[in-house]
Design brief:
By secondary structure, the protein is of the alpha+beta class. The chain contains 5 helices and 4 strands; from the N terminus they run H-H-H-H-H-E-E-E-E.
């Protein structure tokens, strides 16, 4: 009897602790336009908020950014002087209802120089949405248009 009571108390306290300390709600990026989404991505990466940065990416790009040795998630040490251009209707894949290009310039320091050296950077970021009601997501980040 005493062992059963102890198990019940233990399970109750574990359950209550789980209810009190729920995970943070997912970052709210779904209402952002292309330019603001790209800015949010880079500002999030620069301060180490990878949950918000990941929420900015499409389902196709996210696995690559999580695993690539030279990705912003795995290699970026510092980022500053961020400049984000207005979105321009330059499609990349042509398979989404809307695809735009946003040009980003910034200074960066990397843990390991792999594909880009430290210093001034320029990225061509493509942002898309599958339907008119779908949120904008980053579908590609590259060093050339």
């Amino acid at each position: 009897m005493r062992g059963t009571l102890l198990i019940v108390i233990l399970l109750t306290s574990v359950f209550q602790t789980g209810c009190l300390f729920e995970k943070s709600p997912p970052p709210k990026v779904d209402g952002l336009g292309p330019q603001k989404l790209v800015e949010t991505y880079y500002r999030s990466v620069s301060r180490g908020d990878l949950a918000t940065a990941r929420a900015c990416l499409s389902g196709d790009l996210l696995p690559l950014m999580n695993s690539a040795e030279d990705s912003d998630f795995n290699n970026l040490v510092a980022l500053w002087n961020l400049k984000v251009s207005e979105a321009r209707p330059i499609p990349l894949y042509g398979k989404n209802i809307d695809e735009v290009q946003v040009v980003v310039e910034y200074n960066a320091v990397y843990r390991k120089v792999i594909t880009s050296g430290n210093g001034r950077q320029m990225r061509f970021v493509y942002v898309a949405r599958k339907t008119k009601d779908a949120p904008w997501k980053i579908i590609s980040i590259g060093t050339g248009p």
